[in-house]
Design a protein that fits this description.
Rossmann fold, 8-stranded mixed β-sheet, 57% helix, 9% strand, binds guanosine-5'-triphosphate, ribonucleoprotein
Length: 466
């Protein structure tokens, strides 16, 4: 993830400020050094790093912290604001009819991004279509078609036509009914005349409303040259950074944004159509600094919940809040969790849990958790209706039988029952909360994610700065 180490290394230095009400020059110097180190490691352009660190330094030393603010909160706020300014606004993408052209080098993820973006727009209630003009890479047509089928969006391509401009022309005609037309172009292994000329001809014909440059997060310093070449050729309005789920650092993309005077539109976080996020500077930086990104989380939860409801007509999440929390409810929750995406990504979005928790866990702890959920499901499949509805009836003999039936150790069956007990207790606590408490909590979560993006605090408690 971009600037991955920044959150944890910065938290380390910030923790040393606990209890202090004033910042010394040494404190500021240490924090600035920490930030510089992380940014440079994340492949952020040196000139950008210099610019950022001098404004942080200047502000931290000269600005008077608002009354009652600790030195730590003061610095964190400045770092947050400056980082938000560094990554810039999100690319303007009104939810209305438009044509978007995707450009980028081979393998950057254009084809995948086209389908993901189409999926994203379709979830916003628009009708998108992908036009695949890549005649260069064998297989691009099939790949695009399959992904669009998975995304359940319209697709146009022609594997027998060799001229990409001709495909684009026909594609526009064929997709006239769509609201959003996403034109995917071919890439080459390096920047060359042919690629640029082809792109220019497609651009001229299509006359897109927006040109987006797709960049692999691993690109590093090369991003600047690429961005310049594409920017000179067709003009770039926004950047999509892909493969942020991997180990890549992504800092290079910031140079591309700077170079083309553009902004970031989307982030790609996996190979599936749903692995896309609209870039939101506040949430992005909050998450980076371990303050969580409640808005993204709320969106995912909402989506998973409505998918779950669509699949499972008898299920009403409100029921769970009222009566007994059964193993069936637990299984549904696990399914909903799975729909939200990898657990590690979900946890990363929860303020306070985010970076902090991830740092404490061994690297493979998350996989184990996913694996454990899988085992739990297998075990539940070996239980009878009655056992699922009334887990308290499961004694020693039944545990033995379930273990044999599921092929999982008795130990794991017991762990499942333990886990259920814990969740059940938690649900009881929620049930104890009045409706208004619950509503207040939800509202706070939404406001925080949508507005100040993590600056607003989580109500009366310590808040994300605590
Ligand atoms: N993990 C991960 N993989 C991705 C992501 N986006 C794309 N990929 C993978 O990257 C590879 C290249 O993606 P494509 O979409 O084929 O790239 P392209 O830019 O269209 O390539 P050309 O058509 O050759 O120009 C594929 O294996 C994708 O599955 C992402 O966000 N995360």
């Amino acid at each position: 993830m971009v600037l991955d180490n920044l959150g944890s290394s910065l938290r380390g230095s910030l923790d040393k400020l606990r209890g202090k009400s004033r910042l010394s020059e040494e404190d500021v110097a240490e924090i600035v050094k920490e930030i510089q180190r992380s940014l440079i490691q994340a492949d952020v352009d040196i000139a950008l790093v210099q610019e950022l660190s001098s404004s942080i330094e200047e502000r931290a030393l000269n600005e008077e912290p608002p009354g009652g603010t600790s030195a730590r909160d003061h610095v964190l706020r400045i770092v947050y604001e400056e980082l938000v300014a560094l990554v810039g606004e999100s690319t303007d993408l009104p939810l209305e009819s438009q044509t978007i052209l995707l450009a980028g080098l081979q393998g950057s993820g254009k084809t995948t991004t086209a389908a993901k973006m189409a999926w994203w727009f379709s979830k916003k209630g628009l009708r998108p279509a992908v036009i695949q003009t890549d005649t260069f890479r064998p297989g691009a047509y099939d790949q695009a078609k399959q992904m669009c089928e998975r995304a359940e969006v319209d697709f146009y391509g022609d594997p027998d036509e060799e001229d990409p401009v001709e495909i684009a022309r026909k594609g526009l005609e064929e997709t006239a009914d769509a609201d959003i037309r996403i034109v995917d172009t071919s890439g080459r292994s390096g920047l060359n005349e042919t690629l640029i000329e082809e792109l220019k001809s497609i651009e001229e014909l299509v006359a897109p409303d927006r040109n987006l440059l797709v960049l692999d997060a691993a690109i590093g310093q090369g991003a600047k040259d690429q961005a310049k070449a594409f920017g000179d050729a067709v003009g770039i309005d926004g950047v999509v950074i892909t493969k942020l789920d991997g180990t890549a650092k992504g800092g290079g993309a910031l140079a591309a944004v700077d170079q083309t005077d553009s902004t970031i539109a989307f982030l790609g976080t996996g190979e599936e159509v749903a692995d896309i996020e609209r870039f939101e500077p506040n949430g992005f930086i909050s998450r980076l600094l371990g303050m969580g990104d409640l808005k993204q989380l709320a969106e995912r939860v909402e989506r998973a919940m409505s998918e779950q409801e669509a699949e499972d007509e008898d299920w009403d999440p409100e029921d769970m809040m009222k009566g007994e929390f059964t193993l069936k409810d637990m299984r549904r929750q696990m399914d909903a969790m799975n729909k939200m995406g990898p657990l590690s990504q979900v946890l990363d979005m929860i303020p306070g849990l985010g970076g902090g928790l991830m740092d404490q866990l061994p690297d493979d702890a998350m996989d184990v958790t996913q694996e454990r959920m899988q085992s739990f499901k297998v075990i539940m499949d070996s239980m009878s209706e009655e056992e699922l509805e009334n887990p308290r009836s499961i004694g020693k003999t039944r545990i033995e039988r379930i273990s044999r039936g599921s092929g999982k150790p008795e130990e794991t069956v017991r762990e499942l029952l333990e886990q259920h007990k814990m969740m059940s207790r938690m649900m009881k606590q929620f049930q104890g909360m009045g409706d208004s408490d619950m509503q207040r909590m939800m509202k706070q979560m939404q406001q925080q994610g949508g507005g100040g993006g993590g600056m607003g605090g989580m109500g009366g408690g310590g808040g994300p700065f605590g």
